[in-house]
Fold each of these.
Amino acid sequence: MEDTDRRAEELSHTAARIKTILDSRVPGVMDEPLYRRASVGIPLVQGPSVLFQIRSKKLKSQPGEICFPGGAIEPGESPRQAVVRECSEELLLPPDHIKVLGQGDILITPTGRIIYPFVVRLEDYRNTYSTDEVEDVFSVPLEWLLKQKPDFYIQEVETKVGEDFPFDKIQGGEDYPWQRGKNRIYFYEYKGKIIWGLTARLLKGFADLIKE
């Protein structure tokens, strides 16, 4: 009986210590250092409208595609600081003319990226942009976007492991029934311009929040 009481007391002390640890922290993303982290701005301009960029055809990654301003979060930089810097660099606008209105829901992609979206207001913006990264800019009325129900298509995500994977250590071996994931790819079309992929996903997330 004494042994049972001692174990119960040890469990109680251990549970109390664990609760103290968990209560004093903000939950993060598991294995976050293994992901590529980026901040993206969803810019509001006069209209009110949402501003989009067309990526320069000189870029190696996704040339000519429609996107929002954004990019990788640099070491020692917060996601909020990163979005202001990226908007400033890509739209040639002073940082104090970029007002962060708030943060949307974080997006974790199947390709190992964590995206931190922020809604930003651009003050005194005159359609400027860096030609190193941007081919052109255009805006879409916010009222129009909020009324849209974008098309979507299903992308299946499969698990592939390397040749050195220890199949002999798992049940089923090489016939193990790996789970498959599904990802929605959204499409908006405005005056002949196709907004799709990650940009459309962030746009829909923003629109859903505003509608609520």
Amino acid sequence: MSASDAQTLPTVPFGRYRISRLIMGDNPIYGYSHFNQLLSEHQKEANTSDQVMATLRRAEEVGVNAWQNTLTERSAADLRRYRDEGGTIHYFCLSRGGNWYDDPSLIDEAATHEPIGMAPHGSGVAGRCLKENRLGHLWDILKRIRNTGAMVGLSVHNPRLIDIAEEEDWDIDYYMTALYYLEGAREEFERKFGHPPLGEVYLREHRDRMCRIIQNTAKPCIVFKVLAAGRSVGSNNQIREEFAFALNNIKANDVLLVGMYQKFNDQLGENAAMVAELCQ
């Protein structure tokens, strides 16, 4: 895909912005592989600051106009460099694990990086508040985000949390919705087999429930774990099938969040072309 093809990737309204239907995540960039420590270390080593700049520039070329990452010292430095070099991709901020749960004042610090949207982590903050029956604490975190002027996002792994937020009409601008509920899948595995699994468990049936919830909310959704954290990338046809399933089962104003790794092939160009074709 050349720079001239960039406009083939459609955009949709997202608050006062327009966001491409495919946006970039940061897991493969900063070594959150969801597989094992060896792959994570490989990803971190491959993604020098220069490589991250090249990846972001390639995203611009193919029409991906938003990047969501977990705010760390390293990712913040890359974001500053990218902007200093003229980069214009929109930035969505996700909390680092449970740090906003422990210290909500970090939200104000995160806002200094000028994200267009901010969300507490789906398991480390939102899921933890649900599990510990501390939804009041989660409301306070969301209010603090609102006070920064950024769009308020809620990242969700457990679909029940969206049910609650919708029923109670929480002050939220968008959801981040995981197609796979990893903690729930692990619990189901243990109930069935009597012992914990080795590694993460992805259950296909979880996608159907989350997609029904996505369709039933008027709020735009950033849909993630589309490729099951790299478990559904055995071929281009399989990747296309996963993208097609997601796009056919979410709303027309929702977007796909996909981590892309430029080490071995042009995943940004290939994925953008697939999404653009499927959206036609």
